[in-house]
Structure formats: structure tokens, C-alpha cells
Amino acid sequence: MRIRPVSALAPCLALGLALGGCGGGGGSSNGEAGKSAAQIIVDARAALTSATSVHLTGSGTDMNFGQVTFDAHATQDGCTASLKLQSGTLALLRIGSAVYLKAPVAVLRALAPAGISTSALQLAAGSWLKLPLNLPQLQTVLRLCGVHNVDALLAPTGQLAKGAQSTTNGKKVIVINESANGRAIGSIAVATTGKAYPVEAIGGPGAPVQGTALFSDWNAHVSLTAPNGAIDVTSLLKH
């Protein structure tokens, strides 16, 4: 999802994760408020891609899955995430080039490779499946997996303009508004103290994905472990 994303986060709380760092709220100005809108976005994206991890939570509308609510921890080359879709809840884990997911049949039908029978999907439902990273139908949900994938969601597609300075999720921010053809399509709030991390992203009408996202728990330790007994999805093609 282009989530100029989606999220709401607990400030500096890692759910079951050891906290290694966090984007700060108070402190002296980092100078971002005095820069151009374009440079602020450049700085925010650079801060994001240099982070070892980030916690994203939120909700939005995706063209493939409809209303989605998610809670994800993205690292440099992986993620662990829970996505609540209209057709069920998807548990997602990416470790490097390996992708694991657990979901009900209705969700598996949309994400599994063609050629797998309904009976095979029913047997696999609720179990961890291992799938290839390059599977086309996975690309939507993999947008939350890896800080570089998340960064792509923040790439501007319209005209940028500086908005007001305010406080979001307990952090001082400068808001950058984006428009296309004279219509507002989204905004990104960037921290004005500490490192120039993105704090909130909003996609409105006209954006590829409409929703709201918050970013937090920067550089927390995230443990990614492959699930035991995962079923290789290629084995289901025989059934």
C-alpha cells in the first residue's frame, strides 16, 4: 500500500522486543523547519533508510484487499507484521529472501501461486507457509517489509509544500503537504528535534492508498526467526 501509510504507535514501547533506540520528541531543533519541503523529505527518507528498524502501525484502504489495519516491525532486510484484512488476519514474516505467512483460506486464495487447489489451501490454512520473495501477488503486503520498501512508500509523486509546525504523537514536527493537479493527496510529518525521522504519513483522496501511518520505536532490536515446520508452498502444487 502506498501508505503515505498507515499507523498508530505506542511511544517507545516494543511489544515483546528489546528496545534498542527510539526517535526522540524533545530537545533542540535539528534545523529541518528552516529547509525547503523537498529537502525535508530527502532528509526524512535518508533517516528512515539508515535506521536498523522501525515500528509501523495504522490502517488504510488498499485496492486489492480493501480496508487494512496493520502492526509491523520493519528491519533492513525483513519484517514481522500482522495485517487485519476484510477476509481475515494475515501473519507475515520476511527474513532476507524467505517469506512466511499464516492466514485463513480466503486470504491464501489471493496470495498463493496459481495451480493450488482449494482443498490444499484448506489443509494449509492456519499453518505457516514459505513462499518466494518475488511472487507477484505478495508485493502489496511486502511493502511493509524492510525499511527500503517502506521508504518507497514515501517517495513524492506530486508537488510539495511546507505546512505548519505542530506536535504529532508527542513529537515536534514540520508537516509537508503534497498535491497533484491542485488537489491535496497526502502529507508527511517530519521530526524537528533529534534525527529527521518521519513521524506520520497520511494519504488522502487521489493517493494510491488512503490511510494514516505513524512511525516509532526507531532502531529497536527485532528478532526474526523462521517458524518450525513451515510448508513450502511449491509442495502444494502437487495437490
Explain what you see:
This protein is mainly beta. The chain has one domain (32-231): outer membrane lipoprotein receptor (LolB), chain A (Clam), CATH 2.50.20.20. Helix content is 15%, strand content 37%. It is built from four helices and twelve strands. It has a twelve-stranded mixed β-sheet. A hairpin with a 6-residue loop joins strand 10 (198-203) and strand 11. Helix 1 packs antiparallel against helix 4 (147-153). The two termini are 32 Å apart. The model is unreliable at 1-25 (pLDDT under 50).
The shape, in one word, is elongated
How many individual helices? 4
Mean pLDDT: 84
Determine Rg (CA atoms, Å): 18 Å
CATH fold call:
outer membrane lipoprotein receptor (LolB), chain A
- CATH level 1 name: Mainly Beta
Whole-number total of structural domains: 1
- Helix/strand/pairing category: mainly beta
